[in-house]
Design goal:
30% of the residues lie in helices and 30% in strands. Strand 6 and strand 7 form a beta hairpin. Strands 1-2-3-6-7 form a 5-stranded antiparallel β-sheet. It has a two-stranded antiparallel sheet with strand order 4-5. The chain is an alpha+beta fold and 171 residues long. The protein is built from 3 helices and 7 strands, in the order H-E-E-E-E-E-E-E-H-H. The protein binds nickel (II) ion. Nickel (II) ion (NI) binds next to helix 2.
Length: 171
């Protein structure tokens, strides 16, 4: 397994639209293993393939307290979203050290393929619902800061570019 570099906003590659996985095979399983390792190392509760510059519809999530319940979603699709909305303070491994409130459907039903290529459905609410919607946005090339005002977004872009420069300076 290997840690994968995570793209940082406003990297244009974060706006690529991921393609469906055609076959869940050893190549995909290896990508999933590396994504899980990268997510746990960060640490984060979710990671979309887009964030590690792999543009296929793959998500890993672990919202458990112990970080020992890995969930894998390949080719995830929302089957149903509740009309009821809920606002959560969100963060993202691609936007380090930044958090803000985003309103999303309170619960969703999602279908996907598991690591063996078998279809399954899941009803999610709470953090899992937020996380699924956040990660599925990534697969469509959307980062959560795009729900915020242009003013806030520009401020974040500047901060991230400054941060990237500082990181380069440290090397
Ligand atoms: Ni994210």
């Amino acid at each position: 397994m290997a840690l994968l570099p995570v793209l940082c906003y406003p990297d244009p590659r974060l706006h690529k639209v991921a393609k469906p996985v055609e076959k869940v095979d050893a190549r995909i399983q290896k990508i999933v293993a590396n994504m899980a390792e990268t997510m746990y190392e960060a640490p984060g509760v979710g990671l979309a393939a887009t964030q590690v510059d792999i543009h296929e519809r793959i998500i890993v999530i672990d919202v458990s307290d112990e970080q020992n319940e890995l969930m894998v979603f390949i080719n995830p699709e929302v089957l149903w979203a509740s009309p009821e909305k809920k606002s959560w303070r969100e963060g993202c491994l691609s936007v380090p050290d930044f958090y803000d409130d985003v309103e999303r459907a309170a619960s969703v039903r999602v279908k996907a393929l598991d690591l063996n290529g078998n279809p399954f459905e899941i009803d999610a609410d709470g953090l899992l619902s937020v996380c699924l919607q956040h990660e599925m946005d990534h697969l469509l090339g959307k980062v959560f800061v795009e729900y915020l005002s242009i003013l806030k977004r520009n401020r974040i872009s500047l901060k991230m570019k400054k941060r990237a420069k500082e990181l380069v300076g440290q090397r």
